[in-house]
Design goal:
Shape: rod-shaped
Strand content: 5-15%
Largest sheet: 6 strands, mixed
Distance between the termini: 83 Å
Helix content: 55-70%
Number of strands: 6
Radius of gyration: 41 Å
Length: about 425
Protein backbone atom coordinates (compact mmCIF):
# COMPACT_ATOMS: atom_id res chain seq x y z
CA UNK A 1 0.00 0.00 0.00
CA UNK A 2 1.28 3.53 -0.69
CA UNK A 3 2.44 5.67 2.22
CA UNK A 4 2.10 9.30 3.15
CA UNK A 5 5.50 10.73 4.28
CA UNK A 6 3.77 13.58 6.13
CA UNK A 7 1.80 11.12 8.22
CA UNK A 8 4.98 9.62 9.74
CA UNK A 9 5.84 10.99 13.20
CA UNK A 10 8.96 13.17 13.31
CA UNK A 11 9.73 12.37 16.94
CA UNK A 12 9.80 9.27 19.10
CA UNK A 13 6.16 8.36 19.82
CA UNK A 14 4.92 8.14 23.38
CA UNK A 15 4.43 4.66 24.85
CA UNK A 16 1.19 3.01 23.82
CA UNK A 17 -1.05 3.75 20.82
CA UNK A 18 -1.60 7.39 20.08
CA UNK A 19 -5.08 8.30 18.80
CA UNK A 20 -4.93 9.75 15.30
CA UNK A 21 -6.65 13.02 14.55
CA UNK A 22 -9.66 12.90 12.18
CA UNK A 23 -7.72 14.70 9.43
CA UNK A 24 -4.78 12.32 9.75
CA UNK A 25 -7.14 9.31 9.75
CA UNK A 26 -8.83 10.55 6.57
CA UNK A 27 -5.43 11.08 4.93
CA UNK A 28 -4.27 7.59 5.90
CA UNK A 29 -7.47 6.04 4.56
CA UNK A 30 -7.10 7.91 1.27
CA UNK A 31 -3.50 6.72 0.89
CA UNK A 32 -4.50 3.17 1.84
CA UNK A 33 -7.26 3.16 -0.80
CA UNK A 34 -4.84 4.43 -3.46
CA UNK A 35 -2.30 1.79 -2.46
CA UNK A 36 -4.93 -0.95 -2.53
CA UNK A 37 -6.02 0.11 -6.01
CA UNK A 38 -2.39 0.02 -7.18
CA UNK A 39 -1.89 -3.42 -5.61
CA UNK A 40 -5.04 -4.71 -7.35
CA UNK A 41 -3.75 -3.43 -10.70
CA UNK A 42 -0.43 -5.08 -10.02
CA UNK A 43 -2.09 -8.38 -9.12
CA UNK A 44 -4.48 -8.15 -12.06
CA UNK A 45 -1.56 -7.78 -14.46
CA UNK A 46 0.23 -10.83 -13.07
CA UNK A 47 -2.95 -12.93 -12.97
CA UNK A 48 -3.89 -12.00 -16.55
CA UNK A 49 -0.43 -12.96 -17.77
CA UNK A 50 -0.64 -16.34 -16.05
CA UNK A 51 -4.19 -17.02 -17.28
CA UNK A 52 -3.30 -16.17 -20.87
CA UNK A 53 -0.17 -18.29 -20.73
CA UNK A 54 -2.01 -21.18 -19.12
CA UNK A 55 -4.85 -20.92 -21.63
CA UNK A 56 -2.49 -20.91 -24.59
CA UNK A 57 -0.23 -23.55 -23.10
CA UNK A 58 2.80 -21.30 -23.21
CA UNK A 59 6.02 -22.36 -21.47
CA UNK A 60 4.38 -25.48 -20.09
CA UNK A 61 3.05 -23.63 -17.05
CA UNK A 62 2.18 -25.86 -14.12
CA UNK A 63 -1.48 -25.79 -12.91
CA UNK A 64 -0.39 -25.77 -9.26
CA UNK A 65 1.86 -22.76 -9.85
CA UNK A 66 -0.90 -20.89 -11.63
CA UNK A 67 -3.36 -21.69 -8.82
CA UNK A 68 -0.96 -20.41 -6.14
CA UNK A 69 -0.45 -17.15 -7.98
CA UNK A 70 -4.02 -16.51 -9.11
CA UNK A 71 -5.63 -17.29 -5.74
CA UNK A 72 -2.88 -16.24 -3.36
CA UNK A 73 -2.13 -12.70 -4.49
CA UNK A 74 -5.71 -11.28 -4.61
CA UNK A 75 -6.68 -12.96 -1.33
CA UNK A 76 -3.56 -11.62 0.35
CA UNK A 77 -4.14 -8.08 -0.96
CA UNK A 78 -7.77 -7.98 0.19
CA UNK A 79 -7.01 -9.46 3.59
CA UNK A 80 -4.16 -7.12 4.36
CA UNK A 81 -6.18 -4.13 3.16
CA UNK A 82 -8.97 -4.98 5.61
CA UNK A 83 -6.47 -5.35 8.47
CA UNK A 84 -4.87 -1.95 7.75
CA UNK A 85 -8.25 -0.29 7.40
CA UNK A 86 -9.34 -1.72 10.75
CA UNK A 87 -6.14 -0.39 12.38
CA UNK A 88 -6.77 3.11 11.05
CA UNK A 89 -10.45 3.23 11.99
CA UNK A 90 -9.82 1.94 15.52
CA UNK A 91 -7.04 4.52 16.08
CA UNK A 92 -4.43 1.82 16.53
CA UNK A 93 -0.83 2.59 15.64
CA UNK A 94 -0.58 2.31 11.84
CA UNK A 95 2.79 2.38 10.06
CA UNK A 96 2.43 3.03 6.31
CA UNK A 97 6.02 2.09 5.44
CA UNK A 98 5.77 -1.14 7.40
CA UNK A 99 2.59 -1.96 5.51
CA UNK A 100 4.37 -1.41 2.18
CA UNK A 101 7.26 -3.59 3.30
CA UNK A 102 4.95 -6.43 4.37
CA UNK A 103 2.97 -6.27 1.12
CA UNK A 104 6.06 -6.34 -1.10
CA UNK A 105 7.63 -9.14 0.98
CA UNK A 106 4.59 -11.40 0.79
CA UNK A 107 4.10 -10.60 -2.91
CA UNK A 108 7.70 -11.61 -3.50
CA UNK A 109 7.26 -14.89 -1.59
CA UNK A 110 4.15 -15.74 -3.61
CA UNK A 111 5.98 -14.97 -6.85
CA UNK A 112 8.97 -17.05 -5.80
CA UNK A 113 6.65 -19.95 -4.96
CA UNK A 114 5.18 -19.59 -8.43
CA UNK A 115 8.63 -19.54 -9.99
CA UNK A 116 9.80 -22.64 -8.14
CA UNK A 117 6.58 -24.51 -8.94
CA UNK A 118 6.85 -23.39 -12.55
CA UNK A 119 10.43 -24.74 -12.70
CA UNK A 120 12.03 -21.36 -13.49
CA UNK A 121 10.43 -20.89 -16.88
CA UNK A 122 10.86 -17.82 -19.05
CA UNK A 123 7.27 -16.89 -18.29
CA UNK A 124 7.86 -16.89 -14.52
CA UNK A 125 11.00 -14.77 -15.00
CA UNK A 126 9.09 -12.28 -17.17
CA UNK A 127 6.30 -12.04 -14.60
CA UNK A 128 8.89 -11.48 -11.87
CA UNK A 129 10.50 -8.66 -13.83
CA UNK A 130 7.16 -6.99 -14.62
CA UNK A 131 6.29 -7.28 -10.95
CA UNK A 132 9.40 -5.30 -10.11
CA UNK A 133 8.51 -2.71 -12.74
CA UNK A 134 4.98 -2.31 -11.39
CA UNK A 135 6.32 -1.97 -7.85
CA UNK A 136 8.63 0.75 -9.15
CA UNK A 137 5.68 2.60 -10.66
CA UNK A 138 3.28 2.24 -7.75
CA UNK A 139 5.41 2.04 -4.61
CA UNK A 140 8.72 3.75 -5.40
CA UNK A 141 8.01 6.80 -3.24
CA UNK A 142 6.77 4.72 -0.32
CA UNK A 143 9.74 2.32 -0.38
CA UNK A 144 12.43 4.93 -0.92
CA UNK A 145 15.74 4.46 -2.73
CA UNK A 146 17.24 2.33 0.04
CA UNK A 147 14.11 0.17 0.22
CA UNK A 148 14.13 -0.36 -3.53
CA UNK A 149 17.78 -1.47 -3.49
CA UNK A 150 17.28 -3.76 -0.50
CA UNK A 151 14.16 -5.31 -2.00
CA UNK A 152 15.89 -5.94 -5.33
CA UNK A 153 18.92 -7.44 -3.58
CA UNK A 154 16.67 -9.68 -1.48
CA UNK A 155 14.77 -10.86 -4.56
CA UNK A 156 17.95 -11.54 -6.52
CA UNK A 157 19.47 -13.44 -3.59
CA UNK A 158 16.30 -15.46 -2.96
CA UNK A 159 15.85 -16.15 -6.64
CA UNK A 160 19.46 -17.24 -6.96
CA UNK A 161 19.39 -19.52 -3.92
CA UNK A 162 16.14 -21.09 -5.09
CA UNK A 163 17.64 -21.61 -8.56
CA UNK A 164 20.78 -23.22 -7.18
CA UNK A 165 18.87 -25.49 -4.80
CA UNK A 166 16.54 -26.69 -7.56
CA UNK A 167 17.84 -29.75 -9.45
CA UNK A 168 18.96 -28.92 -12.96
CA UNK A 169 16.64 -31.48 -14.49
CA UNK A 170 13.32 -29.74 -13.75
CA UNK A 171 14.68 -26.24 -14.46
CA UNK A 172 13.67 -24.58 -17.72
CA UNK A 173 16.48 -21.98 -17.67
CA UNK A 174 20.11 -22.68 -18.25
CA UNK A 175 22.85 -21.12 -16.19
CA UNK A 176 23.55 -18.42 -18.79
CA UNK A 177 19.87 -17.58 -19.04
CA UNK A 178 19.65 -17.41 -15.26
CA UNK A 179 22.53 -14.89 -15.15
CA UNK A 180 20.75 -12.83 -17.79
CA UNK A 181 17.59 -12.78 -15.69
CA UNK A 182 19.59 -11.67 -12.65
CA UNK A 183 21.13 -8.82 -14.67
CA UNK A 184 17.67 -7.70 -15.72
CA UNK A 185 16.60 -7.82 -12.07
CA UNK A 186 19.56 -5.65 -11.13
CA UNK A 187 18.84 -3.07 -13.84
CA UNK A 188 15.18 -2.86 -12.83
CA UNK A 189 16.21 -2.49 -9.18
CA UNK A 190 18.55 0.38 -10.00
CA UNK A 191 15.78 2.03 -11.99
CA UNK A 192 13.50 1.66 -8.97
CA UNK A 193 16.12 3.28 -6.75
CA UNK A 194 16.54 6.23 -9.13
CA UNK A 195 12.79 6.75 -9.45
CA UNK A 196 12.34 6.48 -5.67
CA UNK A 197 15.15 8.95 -5.03
CA UNK A 198 13.74 11.51 -7.47
CA UNK A 199 10.20 11.03 -6.14
CA UNK A 200 11.29 11.51 -2.54
CA UNK A 201 13.36 14.56 -3.48
CA UNK A 202 10.34 16.15 -5.12
CA UNK A 203 8.20 15.24 -2.12
CA UNK A 204 10.71 16.88 0.23
CA UNK A 205 10.73 20.00 -1.93
CA UNK A 206 6.94 20.17 -1.86
CA UNK A 207 6.86 19.61 1.91
CA UNK A 208 9.48 22.32 2.47
CA UNK A 209 7.59 24.70 0.19
CA UNK A 210 4.34 24.07 2.04
CA UNK A 211 6.12 24.54 5.37
CA UNK A 212 7.56 27.86 4.21
CA UNK A 213 4.17 28.97 2.94
CA UNK A 214 2.61 28.06 6.28
CA UNK A 215 5.35 29.94 8.14
CA UNK A 216 4.89 33.01 5.93
CA UNK A 217 1.13 32.86 6.45
CA UNK A 218 1.58 32.68 10.22
CA UNK A 219 4.02 35.60 10.15
CA UNK A 220 1.62 37.62 8.04
CA UNK A 221 -1.21 36.81 10.45
CA UNK A 222 0.93 37.93 13.41
CA UNK A 223 1.95 41.13 11.64
CA UNK A 224 -1.67 41.88 10.78
CA UNK A 225 -2.71 41.25 14.38
CA UNK A 226 0.07 43.53 15.65
CA UNK A 227 -0.84 46.18 13.11
CA UNK A 228 -4.50 45.99 14.09
CA UNK A 229 -3.54 46.24 17.75
CA UNK A 230 -1.26 49.21 17.08
CA UNK A 231 -3.99 50.95 15.11
CA UNK A 232 -6.31 50.71 18.13
CA UNK A 233 -3.77 51.52 20.85
CA UNK A 234 -2.40 54.86 21.99
CA UNK A 235 1.34 54.86 21.50
CA UNK A 236 2.14 56.99 24.54
CA UNK A 237 -0.08 55.61 27.28
CA UNK A 238 -0.79 52.11 26.00
CA UNK A 239 -4.56 52.43 26.45
CA UNK A 240 -7.10 52.45 23.63
CA UNK A 241 -6.89 55.38 21.22
CA UNK A 242 -9.61 57.60 19.77
CA UNK A 243 -10.32 55.23 16.90
CA UNK A 244 -10.81 52.35 19.33
CA UNK A 245 -13.00 54.57 21.52
CA UNK A 246 -15.30 55.44 18.62
CA UNK A 247 -15.59 51.76 17.73
CA UNK A 248 -16.32 50.56 21.26
CA UNK A 249 -18.86 53.33 21.94
CA UNK A 250 -20.70 52.61 18.69
CA UNK A 251 -20.70 48.91 19.59
CA UNK A 252 -22.17 49.59 23.03
CA UNK A 253 -24.85 51.81 21.50
CA UNK A 254 -25.77 48.96 19.17
CA UNK A 255 -25.94 46.54 22.10
CA UNK A 256 -28.25 48.88 24.04
CA UNK A 257 -30.50 49.29 21.02
CA UNK A 258 -30.73 45.52 20.51
CA UNK A 259 -31.57 45.12 24.19
CA UNK A 260 -34.32 47.72 23.87
CA UNK A 261 -35.84 46.03 20.82
CA UNK A 262 -35.71 42.60 22.47
CA UNK A 263 -37.30 43.95 25.65
CA UNK A 264 -40.07 45.63 23.63
CA UNK A 265 -40.92 42.38 21.86
CA UNK A 266 -41.08 40.35 25.10
CA UNK A 267 -43.53 42.53 26.99
CA UNK A 268 -46.10 45.18 26.24
CA UNK A 269 -45.14 47.12 29.37
CA UNK A 270 -42.47 49.78 29.43
CA UNK A 271 -39.30 48.17 28.07
CA UNK A 272 -36.23 47.94 30.26
CA UNK A 273 -33.50 49.39 28.06
CA UNK A 274 -29.84 48.56 28.55
CA UNK A 275 -27.66 50.92 30.57
CA UNK A 276 -24.66 52.82 29.22
CA UNK A 277 -22.67 55.63 30.81
CA UNK A 278 -19.77 57.71 29.56
CA UNK A 279 -17.12 59.51 31.61
CA UNK A 280 -14.92 62.22 30.06
CA UNK A 281 -11.82 63.15 32.08
CA UNK A 282 -9.35 65.99 31.67
CA UNK A 283 -6.02 66.56 33.49
CA UNK A 284 -6.31 69.91 35.25
CA UNK A 285 -3.98 72.67 34.01
CA UNK A 286 -1.93 70.26 31.95
CA UNK A 287 -0.60 73.01 29.66
CA UNK A 288 0.83 74.75 32.70
CA UNK A 289 2.42 71.45 33.75
CA UNK A 290 4.18 71.20 30.39
CA UNK A 291 5.25 74.85 30.54
CA UNK A 292 6.85 74.39 33.97
CA UNK A 293 8.39 70.91 33.65
CA UNK A 294 8.69 70.28 29.90
CA UNK A 295 7.02 67.92 27.47
CA UNK A 296 9.03 64.84 28.48
CA UNK A 297 7.77 65.21 32.04
CA UNK A 298 4.28 65.79 30.60
CA UNK A 299 4.48 62.52 28.65
CA UNK A 300 5.57 60.64 31.76
CA UNK A 301 2.72 62.25 33.72
CA UNK A 302 0.16 61.10 31.15
CA UNK A 303 1.50 57.54 31.26
CA UNK A 304 1.25 57.42 35.06
CA UNK A 305 -2.22 58.99 35.06
CA UNK A 306 -3.47 56.52 32.41
CA UNK A 307 -2.11 53.58 34.42
CA UNK A 308 -3.84 54.85 37.59
CA UNK A 309 -7.13 55.29 35.72
CA UNK A 310 -6.90 51.79 34.26
CA UNK A 311 -6.23 50.35 37.71
CA UNK A 312 -9.32 52.08 39.12
CA UNK A 313 -11.61 50.24 36.67
CA UNK A 314 -12.61 47.02 38.38
CA UNK A 315 -14.77 45.37 35.71
CA UNK A 316 -13.27 43.87 32.53
CA UNK A 317 -16.09 45.47 30.52
CA UNK A 318 -15.15 49.01 31.64
CA UNK A 319 -12.99 50.45 28.88
CA UNK A 320 -10.53 53.35 29.10
CA UNK A 321 -9.37 55.31 26.06
CA UNK A 322 -7.29 58.38 25.40
CA UNK A 323 -9.73 60.80 23.85
CA UNK A 324 -7.15 63.38 22.78
CA UNK A 325 -4.25 65.31 24.35
CA UNK A 326 -4.74 65.22 28.11
CA UNK A 327 -8.36 64.02 27.82
CA UNK A 328 -9.48 60.47 28.56
CA UNK A 329 -12.81 58.65 28.26
CA UNK A 330 -14.30 55.68 30.09
CA UNK A 331 -17.12 53.62 28.58
CA UNK A 332 -19.21 51.91 31.27
CA UNK A 333 -21.63 49.26 29.93
CA UNK A 334 -24.65 48.32 32.07
CA UNK A 335 -24.00 51.28 34.38
CA UNK A 336 -26.48 53.99 35.36
CA UNK A 337 -25.65 57.57 36.36
CA UNK A 338 -25.17 56.78 40.04
CA UNK A 339 -22.81 53.93 39.25
CA UNK A 340 -20.86 56.14 36.84
CA UNK A 341 -20.39 58.71 39.61
CA UNK A 342 -18.86 56.04 41.86
CA UNK A 343 -16.45 54.90 39.13
CA UNK A 344 -15.50 58.46 38.18
CA UNK A 345 -14.81 59.39 41.79
CA UNK A 346 -12.66 56.28 42.19
CA UNK A 347 -10.64 57.33 39.13
CA UNK A 348 -10.15 60.84 40.52
CA UNK A 349 -8.98 59.44 43.86
CA UNK A 350 -6.53 57.07 42.13
CA UNK A 351 -4.92 59.96 40.22
CA UNK A 352 -4.80 62.15 43.31
CA UNK A 353 -3.05 59.36 45.27
CA UNK A 354 -0.18 59.40 42.76
CA UNK A 355 0.86 62.74 44.28
CA UNK A 356 2.52 63.94 41.11
CA UNK A 357 3.76 67.46 41.89
CA UNK A 358 2.14 70.18 39.78
CA UNK A 359 3.79 73.57 40.25
CA UNK A 360 1.36 75.31 37.86
CA UNK A 361 -1.96 74.09 39.29
CA UNK A 362 -4.43 76.38 41.04
CA UNK A 363 -6.24 73.34 42.51
CA UNK A 364 -3.48 72.01 44.73
CA UNK A 365 0.14 70.85 44.81
CA UNK A 366 -0.52 67.63 42.93
CA UNK A 367 -1.92 66.61 39.55
CA UNK A 368 -5.71 66.22 39.55
CA UNK A 369 -8.37 65.46 36.98
CA UNK A 370 -11.92 66.65 36.38
CA UNK A 371 -14.74 64.40 35.13
CA UNK A 372 -18.05 64.83 33.35
CA UNK A 373 -20.53 61.99 33.13
CA UNK A 374 -23.62 61.24 31.08
CA UNK A 375 -25.99 58.31 30.71
CA UNK A 376 -27.46 57.23 27.42
CA UNK A 377 -29.28 56.69 25.30
CA UNK A 378 -31.83 58.97 26.90
CA UNK A 379 -34.35 58.35 24.10
CA UNK A 380 -34.85 56.00 21.17
CA UNK A 381 -33.42 58.53 18.71
CA UNK A 382 -30.39 59.38 20.88
CA UNK A 383 -27.07 59.43 19.07
CA UNK A 384 -23.44 58.75 20.05
CA UNK A 385 -22.53 62.39 19.41
CA UNK A 386 -25.26 63.58 21.78
CA UNK A 387 -23.99 61.32 24.56
CA UNK A 388 -20.44 62.68 24.10
CA UNK A 389 -21.80 66.24 24.07
CA UNK A 390 -23.65 65.70 27.36
CA UNK A 391 -20.55 64.19 28.99
CA UNK A 392 -18.47 67.12 27.69
CA UNK A 393 -21.01 69.53 29.17
CA UNK A 394 -20.61 67.77 32.51
CA UNK A 395 -16.82 68.12 32.23
CA UNK A 396 -17.21 71.84 31.53
CA UNK A 397 -19.37 72.22 34.64
CA UNK A 398 -16.81 70.34 36.73
CA UNK A 399 -14.08 72.74 35.61
CA UNK A 400 -16.28 75.76 36.18
CA UNK A 401 -17.06 74.53 39.71
CA UNK A 402 -13.38 74.47 40.67
CA UNK A 403 -11.96 71.34 38.96
CA UNK A 404 -10.90 68.05 40.59
CA UNK A 405 -14.51 66.92 40.82
CA UNK A 406 -17.27 65.00 39.01
CA UNK A 407 -20.23 66.75 37.43
CA UNK A 408 -23.17 65.89 35.19
CA UNK A 409 -24.87 67.94 32.55
CA UNK A 410 -27.94 68.68 34.68
CA UNK A 411 -25.69 70.64 37.13
CA UNK A 412 -25.79 67.94 39.82
CA UNK A 413 -22.23 67.50 41.10
CA UNK A 414 -20.22 65.35 43.41
CA UNK A 415 -17.36 67.05 45.29
Amino acid sequence: MSADPEAMPSATPAPGPRPASPSRRRRQLANLNRGFASELLHNAWVVVCVLVAFRLGLAGIEPLAATVLIVGMPLWAVGYYLVCRHQILTSRHYRPRLAVSVVTLVDSLILLSFIVLDRFSWLSAAIMITSLVLNMVFFAEAMGARGAILRTAALVATYGVAFLLTPSGPRSLSGEQFVLVLLVFAVVGLMMAVVAHNSQAKTRQIVELLARQKEYAEQLSRYNAELEKASLQDGLTGVANRRSFDRMLAGEFGRVERHRIASSSRTASKPQTGRLSLVLLDVDHFKAYNDHLGHLAGDDCLRRVAAAMQGALLRPSDQLARYGGEEFAVVLPETDLDGAKVVAQRVLDAVRQLEIEHPGSSVGPFVTVSAGIAEGPSSEDDQVARLIARADEGLYRAKAAGRARVAVSDQRSVA
